[in-house]
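FW: tagging you since you asked about this chain on Friday. Here's the raw sequence from the shared folder, copied in full. Didn't touch anything.
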Amino acid sequence: MSVLLAEMTRDRVKEVAPEAVAILPTASIEQHGPHLPVVTDTLLCETVVSRAASMAAPGSSDRRQMVVVPTLMFGDSVHHRPFPGVLTLSSEVYNAAVTSIVESLQLSGFRRIAIINGHGGNEAGNDLVARNVTHYAEELTIIAQSYWDIARAALVADSGLPSEQIPGHAGRFETGLVLAVRPDLVDQSALKRVKRGGTFDDGRFPKSFGARVAGAWQHGGGWTDEPSEATPEEGKRMLETITGEVAELLRQLAA
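HL: got it, structure written out here
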């Protein structure tokens, strides 16, 4: 079984940390169209981390435990601010928060840290923190990856879902996962009404340009691709694939 850092005493943390893997989930509270709850990213990231950590956890006789850190549930979601229900940190504050948490884990004795992300807006900050902290930290190995990127190749192979729809935003991918985990949180009447969502650049530039266009989120409605195509069955299959791939990454980090 994995263990929760928040339920450990300080002496237990000191004992376990040098050989353990600390897993920090990062997510957000932000709009996910008219059909999904604002807690979507946090819900899905916590579900993936909890299941993957339990799957990767060693036997009780092995000291190399999987220690799950409380989720940083407020992310870098400034781009969603035109919509209600968005509780965001600025990029600078978010990066500083992740840095402080990672430094705290290191000071507690952890030498292996996995930042498992569940919100696209956090990716650049998480990567920056991971790169910067290794410049001065000793005996530290850290990874920072979004769960969908860890599992992308397997997801495309197993589900047939186009890579560009992974993760999308409140589209078929995320809607399917929420239907699998907490179907009671999906507004079914709104889901029936949503049509194809817009793109991140409002469709004005080729994807290879990487352009960011002001107002694209509002014009696109705040979701992408076809959320109405999601099914709980597909969501369960994708969740199994994701959990397995993240668990394997954690095992490799532990080794």
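FW: Residues 232-254 form the longest helix (23 residues).
HL: agreed, and Residues 158 and 241 are 8 Å apart (CA to CA).
FW: great, closing this out.
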